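Below is a typical protein record.
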Amino acid sequence: MFIFWHINADSSYLQFVYNATESPSEELYDYIVVGGGTAGCPLATTLSENYSVLLIERGGVAFNDPNVLLEENLIANLLQADDIDSPAEAFTSEDGILNARGRVLGGSSMINFGFYSRADEDFYVESGIEWNMSIVKSAYEWVEEAIVTKTDRINSWQTSVKRALLQSGIRPDNGLTFDHLQGTKIGGSTFDRTGRRHGAVELLNKAKKKNLRVVVHATVERVVFASNTSLGLSAIGVIYRDTNGNSHIAGIREKGEIILSAGALGSPQLLLMSGVGPRSYLSSLNIPIVYDQPLIGQFMADNPRNQITFTPPFPLDDIGIRVAGITKSFYIEAVSGIASFFSPVSPILFPDPYPPLNLTVLTIFEKLSRPLSTGSLRLASPTNASLTPIVRFNYFNDTTDLSQCANAMRAIGKMLRTSVMEQYKSMDQHGQRYFKFVGHALPQNQFDDEAMREFCHKTLTTVYHYHGGCLAQRVVDSHLKVIGINALRVVDGSTFVVSPGTNPQATVMMFGRYIGVKILEERKANYRDA
């Protein structure tokens, strides 16, 4: 058990968090949730109200890691991402784009930029998931009362971004709101007013502690199945391995369930490794076929991010994201920070050790709301679950996405031409004012479609909002139950057809709470009918 305390946070959840090496070789629960991330934490907490729950997380606990907890260290958190044991795990898609996934209790809510905004209305319509909007509303509020801060003051850079959005025509001014509304808004944040992060992990504090056991540094290798003539195929447990290499078996009681909340990469990966997936593909890897499901790992999507970055003529210590510009086809946000640059001439100009050049950088970026381009996921290994699967998102494969990117970057160009942005221009020796861009500048002629499309290709990166792989109505039904298999659900972003709103974390946390409440209601109704 973890017995450390952090004076600035409610870490009472540590009372029921254990290293997987402390787990028995065999154990039994009502529910097993695989993935202690943005969806898994609220889901396990909710189920613990009435049932015994095992929550399994492959990463560790970051309750005292300043790079994770402090907003001032946002960039450092991502820069230190590796493929070994960092809270943010780095990977590169086959498209050649560097990306990251959460590997820590609390998941990606512990490595993101903290912006909190609910889903757009179209998300619910298009999702293929059955929604009770009254429960959706209460689930959002359950999350918000625990970990979300209403922004009462925004810094100078975010203030300028808000004014530039409005001056460039992204209206109306919707003020402070958690809701997704077209126009310009100030959103909430999972960073409080002191700059401390409150991620999904703190939702575990709401759990009934006698009913919840959390194990960390535990890698689930496969789901275990059983089949009989009366019930058909059912999930009955999982096998996971600790850091000493020892295996543990966790099973579920009658009427219990295995719930995969391992994320858009982890959930399809685990299904494939467990023998649920396309027959021909599994056969080629010598994985015993449990259930032929050709659509697992398909329809993988990632919202492309494109941006401009420049250095202002004066230093700024502003950090964080609090403002968003919302249109039907794209969203605009901005961030600032201190970046360290190293030069080959440093050994000539400076004594050893060579000091970095620390500069304030300002970035305005866009996210496409609904990219049409999709790709697929395949296993890096049929037996090693610690290896990130291989994924290709096929960015801009659909030319509509490229056209939308060009339109979004034109909108950013309009922002740069507003009066409020004049103060961020530098001045040359002739008195001419200009933006001192870092990297690619926007094309001079932004009406040149070919030039704008080329800019989009050159500046392509990710906003880390990838989703898909276990889509609703294709792999799972409207209640998130895996089609064709009893006692198995998937509850995370892998079931999403589109990324919800400007930033998905609000909806993913709500989602975990929502499905937990729905499961409790199902069990209660079944008990009454029995």
